[in-house]
Amino acid sequence: MSKEFDVVVIGAGPGGYIAAIRAAQLGLNVACCESNPYDDPKGEPRLGGTCLNVGCIPSKALLASSEEVENVNHHLADHGITVKDVAVDVAKMLKRKDDIVGKMTKGIEFLFRKNKVTLLKGHGKFVGKADGGYQVEIAGKDGAETVKAKQVIIATGSKARHLPSIPVDNVMVCDNEGALKFGEVPKKLGVIGAGVIGLELGSVWRRLGADVTILEALPAFLGAVDAGVAKEAQKLFTKQGLKFELGVKIGNVKADKKGVSLAYTAADGSEKTLECDKLIVSIGRVPNTDKLGLDAVGLAVDERGFIPVDDHCATTVPGIWAIGDVVRGPMLAHKAEDEGVAVAERIAGQKPHIDYNCIPWVIYTSPEIAWVGKTEQQLKAEGRETKAGQFPFMANGRALGMGAADGFVKVIADAKTDEILGVHIIGANASDLIAEAVVAMEFKAASEDIARVCHPHPSLSEVVREAALAVDKRALNM
């Protein structure tokens, strides 16, 4: 007799494991299946998905390590600290990263046990409908079993998009997975794609000593970001040593054990060649929706491979839901988590709601970039009348003391109602500072609300308040 569950979650990434835990908290009998070992030495499935294993968490660990190197080499002298004979142990740096990942993976296993979530080790796919639910096959190392689920949540995430003409071996030509485990610092590093992943990984290896060139097909730098923030970011990253070429067309790529040769057409039409020791391809991600057996339950993906869902992540088949990178919206771990919680609560009869306009974005470069809501260019295209306030970190005492005076905060509000429509930050700790703006927008706050709230002094958060004050041209420290 097959096992039966109220809910089976396919995929144990940020969306999947959070959905499973929340559903279990609500009293449901829950199982979650996962098959990807992510280089586990025993070949066992590792929980946490791309984010924890080969994405968000390991990249932030390496960003932190490389930032320490940058501080020692370029900023400690400003504090009167002299350091000689600095050496970088890449192997130890990578081990630290791996240890953090391992600790967090084990942490999810503990949470599953604590919340009585059944872990099914294997690849999950639909094999058909069952009386009052669905049959899901779990294929693992020891064979396959079929379980029954009243409700199924698809949370299988995404994988790196590759170019058909550029084979990725994750040795010489790498996606995000290979770029996180270079055995040594490449002298010359090429990056295709000036998006979040390209900028973050390019920054890691640039700080450790690589000569980094980033090629971007689009003519504008960070086109989805507020134009003022993007302009400031490109200026600061170029000053740090990253090299950018925008509006390029990638041509033939040749790779061997000695290096990679990449031909491309520059924006001015000239033909160029980039010679590098390693190449990172970071041109976006595609949803993991193949091999799910969707046709067995009457589901199909759209032309881009996403599973169509309504505003509540329900598919067209009753009792089957999809969340995170396999559905519309930004491919962000925290968006997947919120959708996982919302679906679990909806299955349990509650009425949760997600405001997708209030989901923050972050790029963990130095300085960090974070934003929530709409950009000035988006609001202008909508014909919305707005007013904006901007305040620089260079006028903030805490930022100066930290040696982190680059960047600014911009607050955009409705010209008539003063409702906050967007907040855009480039500066130190932007990933933390943006949370105040998210809370404000969730409560439909006005810029006046932030301006009237007492902020601690000295703190970076004062820059957010000053930007809100500047909306009505009454910043106090400028």
From TrEMBL:
Superkingdom in the source lineage: Bacteria
EC number: 1.8.1.4
Top-level enzyme category: oxidoreductase
Keyword presence, Oxidoreductase: yes
Entry keyword set: Oxidoreductase
Name listed for the protein in its UniProt record: Dihydrolipoyl dehydrogenase
Species for this entry: Imbroritus primus
